[in-house]
Amino acid sequence: MYKSNNALKAATVALLLSGCATQSPTLSSGNVEYGDSKAVETLTNEFGSTDLQTIAESMANSLLQSPALFAKSRPLVTVAEVKNRTSEYIDTKSITDSIRSKIVKSGMVRFAVDTSAMQTQVDELTRQNQTGLYKKSKSKKMGNMEGADFRIEGTITSIVKRADDVKDVYYKFSLQLVDIESGTMEWADEKEIRKTSNRSMF
Amino acid sequence: MPSFKSIPLAIALLLLSACASHKPPPRPGSINAKVEQLSEMSYLQVTDLRALKRNHLLTVQAEINNPDSDNRQLYYRFKWMDTNGFVVGNEEAWKPVLVYAYQKQTITAVAPSPQVTDFRLVVQSPDNTGQLP
Question: Which of A75, A96, A131, A171 is the most exposed place for a label (fewest CB within 10 A)?
């Protein structure tokens, strides 16, 4: 009688515990986990996600305050090359893509197709107009593309210094807005980043 | 000699009193109403906060004061809201800023869209020893 009472208690506890245990919708080996993509990353001295995000935010903020952009209603802008003059590989297109996304979201500026996407644009227009597959009334006409008012271009440079166990990296990202018709520079800004690492012996 | 039985009771009371310590909500319009601290900062203070619409976009400037004799690290980001209190845009990246000893550091930000009418400054400092706000 006493034993069966204990078994009943154990079964009740087990039932309660199994009721509390919730199953996460995950399939994991235990070694991989998702982190915060917006976290400050300081794993190494090299150009990282925080640098990219900080540069993009800083440049987009500054550009959105430029009086040149607001002299015209929703001006058309195109993105030219950002030259990488650092000693490391940096995907500068990724930086300009982030800047462009932030500016487009503001709704204050429109972007024209840039040179890297021009072939795709031409191919699409050609397909619609010259393959004979599309209704003439429904296809987009050739010769209606709009030329950009402004061009964004820039450079990223770095200075790397080492002394004993200290490595110092200084990045400078420069961006400028050029009026395409007049060739005048209407806005320019820089974002500087310094990262210092100390390789201690202990 | 104190009774050992009284120790768990004392711990329980301590925990309960810690849970019960509520701060009054910040006054609307005050700096604290716009600042979200991820655990109270021990050294850094947000001493000034101003916002205005420029080119249809809300522009915010915050002043961070370090009254301490050591340099202090701050991580911050802004949250942007529309008139209905909905968050506008994606989460911003956390940004590091070093505030020198006795320095007043100014940080600025521009809202991502003209729909933004309100904001929160989210701050976190590794030098947190205070209680959760």
Answer: A131
Among the listed residues B96, B105, B93, the one whose alpha carbon sits nearest the alpha carbon of residue B44: B105
For domain A45-112+147-202, give its CATH number from 2.30.29.30, 3.40.50.2000, 3.40.630.10, 3.40.50.10610. Answer: 3.40.50.10610
Question: What is the tally of structural domains in chain B?
Answer: 1
CA B42 to chain centre: 11
Which one of A36, A37, A38 would you mutate to disrupt binding with B, by most B Cβ within 10 Å of its Cβ?
Answer: A38
Q: Identify which of B91, B93, B113 has the shortest CB distance to residue A106.
A: B113
Given phi > 0 = left and psi -120 to 50 = alpha, else beta, which region is B80? beta
**What's the pLDDT tens digit per position in B37-82?**
888 888 899 999 999 998 889 999 999 999 999 999 999 999 999 9
The complex scores an ipTM of: 0.77
CA distance B3 to chain A (A): 32
Q: Is residue A108 a contact partner of residue B56, using CB atoms and an 8 Å limit?
A: yes
Summarize the confidence of residues A22-31 as an average pLDDT.
Answer: 81
With beta carbons under 8 A apart, name residues in chain A contacting B57: 64-65, 106, 108
Q: Which of B77, B110, B114 sits opposite A65 (nearest CB)?
A: B110
**Cα A1 to chain center, whole Å?**
70
Model pTM? Answer: 0.80
* Residue A50 with chain B: CB contacts under 8 Å: 93-96
- Domain of residue B50, CATH code: 2.60.40.3230
The answer to whether residue B38 is domain-embedded is yes
pLDDT of residue A6: 67
Q: What is the pLDDT of residue B32?
A: 83
